[in-house]
Amino acid sequence: MTLTEIVRGKGVKIHLHVDGRYLLTIHEEVWMKNGLKKGQQLTDELLDKLSEESQERFAKERAMRLLSARSYTGRQLFDKLTEEAEPEVAQQVVERMEQLGLVDDLDYARRYARDCTNLRQFGANRTRQELRRRGVDPEVIDQVLEEQEQNPVEAIIRWIERKYCRDLEDPTGKGKNRAVQGLLRRGYSYDEIFAAIREFQERESEV
User: Fold this and answer.
1) Sequential DSSP letters for 88-125
2) Which residues of 18-46 are buried (b: 16+ CB within 10 A; e: fewer)?
3) Which residue has the higher pLDDT, 203 or 9?
4) Which fold has domain 3-99?
5) Is 86 left (phi over 0), alpha (psi -120 to 50) or beta?
6) Distance (Å, whole) CA 155 – CA 192
7) Model-level pTM?
8) pLDDT digits (tens, 9 = 90+) for 124-146
9) Domain 152-206 coded CATH 3.30.1370
C-alpha cells in the first residue's frame, strides 16, 4: 500500500489517502512522530499502530475538554469517550485521568450528595439512585451516605410546610396519600415520612 496523499483537516486532523483513496484520519502528532511522507509504503501493522495511537490522542484531548467544562464520574467520561473511541482506548484514557486526579468518583459523589441534601433536599434513597445513574460504585455511595449528617425528619417537615400542608388537612385521606407519594419520590422512607408527619402535627397542635 502506498501513501499517495496527506491532507490536513480541521484542527489536528490529518487525512491519509492510500492508493488514491481516503483511508484513515490520524492525529497531527502521530503523523509527525512517525515521519509519514507521500509515496511511503504502509503495512497493515503500521496502519493499526497509527489508528490506535491517534484514537488515544484524540480521546485524551476530548477528555481534557470535557473535564475543563464540568466534573464527570469515570463511567460518565467513559460513555462520552466511547461515542468516538473504542472501549479499550476510552478505558485507558479514563484511568489516566484518574491517575492525574482529574476524575475522582469519591470526591464527585461527596459533592453531589451534599447538593442533593442541601439544595434539592432529597432523601438518602433518591441520592443513592442519582449516584447510581451516574455510574458511582455502590461501595463509594455507601461510604458517602454514611459520612453525611442528615436529619431527614426536619427536611421532610420543611417540604410539608412548603408544599403539603393542605394535603395533610384533607379529611378524606387522599391528600395525605399524595403527600406521602411525593415524599417517597424525593427519596425518603416510609418510616421517615410518617415520623415527620407526626412531628409536624404535634408542633401544629401546640401553636
Assistant:
1) HHHHHHHHHHHHTTS--HHHHHHHHHHHHHHTS---HH
2) beeeebeebbeebbeeeebeeeeebeeee
3) 9
4) Arc Repressor Mutant, subunit A (1.10.10)
5) beta
6) 10
7) 0.75
8) 889 999 999 999 999 999 999 98
9) no
